[in-house]
Design brief:
Distance between the termini of chain A: 23 Å
Number of helices of chain A: 3
CATH topology of chain A: Alpha-Beta Plaits
Number of domains of chain A: 1
Largest interface: A-B, 44 and 44 residues
Shape of chain A: globular
CATH architecture of chain A: 2-Layer Sandwich
Structural class of chain A: alpha+beta
Helix content of chain A: 25-40%
Oligomer: homodimer
Order of helices and strands of chain A: EHEEHEHEE
Radius of gyration of chain A: 14 Å
Chain lengths: 99, 99
């Protein structure tokens, strides 16, 4: 089982439409792929977590919003389970399985 | 670095209020802890992923809704980053850090 986290999953709880859209656009610009309305995933590198943190500091309201970043090992990524409708045409993830 | 996934993170994209509330209640009954409006986390065991899948099959609309289950290693769980406001008083997670 691979142990190094080489993916990150970013999930967010942002109620304001403008901030939520800004955050989604910024995460996309950082190279992450949208997998749900409020979840992005992508290959990680040493700078990416810092970049995501900086983007959050700039955009979110710390009194109401919440963002969580989870490093994932390749094994965790492969073992993920996706149930139901995949997110739109831009979702180009491979692996995993639909139940 | 610990390699066995001993936590699971469940994130969901469910637009209908009734189904979303049903799913949240069911995940809580399975012993998971809410960390965002549409995200639960908890210690995993061999039956839990199956239980979550069964709950999803019963509740969600496969044509519109999406649920994703990510197994996390203890290291991934410890390395998670939480930014902004934590989710309510029921959130009793330890570890991680607020930036």
């Amino acid at each position: 089982m691979s142990t190094q986290p080489t993916f990150i999953l970013v999930i967010y709880d942002v109620s304001d439409d403008w901030r939520r859209n800004e955050l989604a656009s910024a995460l996309k610009r950082l190279g992450l792929t949208r997998v749900q309305r409020s979840a992005f995933i992508g290959p990680s590198n040493s700078a990416l977590v810092s970049d995501v943190k900086n983007v959050c500091r700039r955009i979110i309201d710390f009194s109401t919003d919440n963002v969580q970043i989870y490093p994932l090992t390749p094994a965790s990524y492969r073992m993920r389970v996706v149930i139901g409708k995949e997110f739109g045409p831009e979702d180009e993830l491979s692996g995993g399985f639909i139940v």
